[in-house]
Amino acid sequence: MTSFEQANLLDLDTYSNEDISAVLETAEAMLPILQRPIARVPTLRGKTVAMVFSEPSTRTRVSFELAAKSLGADVITIVNSGSSIEKGESITDTVKTVQSLGANMLVIRHQASGVPYLAAKTLDIPIINAGDGSHAHPSQSLLDMFTINSELGEIKGKRVVIVGDILHSRVARSNIWGLTKMGATVVLSGPSQLLPSHLQEITDFQDRVSTDSNLDRAIEGADVIMALRIQKERMTSMCMPDIREYAQLYSINKNRLGLANPNAILMHPGPINRGVEVSDEVAYGEQSKIQSQVINGVATRMSIIYLLSGNSREVPIGQS
C-alpha cells in the first residue's frame, strides 16, 4: 500500500511521489463507485465538506460537490453572490464562521494567490486549494495525471507539451510540479510574452522542463498535448496577444496533432474557447480526452477528500 501523510492539499510542491501515487491509486478505486446506479457510499456519513468559491467556477465546484456527496458527506457551498463576502466580510472571518458551523473540511477557490495557505494557518481542519489566483490548482493537476496514467499506462518518460498562457496559469504551474516529480518531460509553448522567464521557482526538476515558442517544433514526438485557455481576466493589455494570430500559431488542429506520437492524447482543463485553443475537428475527436478528464476529476477529488479525511487505506472504501 502506498503511504499518504498530508494534512492539506495546497499545491504539489510539498507532495512526495508516494503521496501523488496514493491519490492516483485511490482515484482508481473510486471510479467503480461512480459507475453504480446509485453513485453513493456511506464512507463520510456525518461529515460536512464546506466549499467557499470567491471566483467563478463550474467544473471544479460541481466536481468537488459530486465527489463529497458520492462519499456520503453533507456539502455547504458559499459563493460571493448573496453571501457575507459580498457585504465586505474578510475571507478569514468567512472561513472561521464555516468551521464554527461544523465543517470538517474546507475547499476554497479565491482570485488572490495565497488565500488557501492563510486558511490553513487559521483553521484546524483539512484545506483543499481549488485554485488561488495565478498560483496553483493542485486537484486539476492530479486529475490530469490520473487521466494520463489511465490512457497511457504511466507518466514516467512521457513528453508532455503544455501550450497557451503559461505565465498566468495555475494549472500549468501545478502540472509542472506534479508531472516532473513523476518522471515526465514537460515542454512549455506559447507566445514569448506568455512564457515564464525562468523556471527555478516552478520546479525542483529543471532539467525536465524547457520552453519553445515554436509549437510545431515543440509538439513533435509528444505523448500528451495540454492546451490552456487564454486568461484575459488575469492579463494586462501589454501582454495580451492578438486572438486571431494566436489561433493561427498555437491552436491545436488536426495537422498539429499529427506531429505528435500516433497514440498521443489531447487534454484541456476547460472551459474551451473553440477555434482559439483547440479546433472543432479535434476537440471531441478520438484522441481528445477532455470529457474523460471531467469524470476523472470527480474520482480524483473523491480520492483527495477521502485521504485528507484521515481514512486508513486499509479500510475498504464504502464501509462505514
Q: What's a concise summary of this model?
A:
The protein has helices at 17-34, 59-70, 91-100, 115-122, 138-152, 170-181, 215-218, 243-250, 254-257, 280-283, 290-308; strands at 48-53, 74-79, 105-110, 127-132, 159-163, 185-189, 209-211, 224-227, 265-267. It is an alpha/beta fold and 320 residues long.
Please provide a written account of the structure.
The chain is an alpha/beta fold and 320 residues long. The protein folds into two domains: 17-136 and 294-308, Rossmann fold, CATH 3.40.50.1370; 138-293, Rossmann fold. Helix content is 36%, strand content 14%. It has helices at 17-34, 59-70, 91-100, 115-122, 138-152, 170-181, 215-218, 243-250, 254-257, 280-283, 290-308; strands spanning 48-53, 74-79, 105-110, 127-132, 159-163, 185-189, 209-211, 224-227, 265-267. It has a five-stranded parallel sheet, covered by helices on one side. It has a four-stranded parallel sheet with strand order 2-1-3-4, with helices on both faces. Helix 1 (17-34) packs across helix 5 (138-152) and helix 1 (17-34) packs across helix 11. The chain is globular.
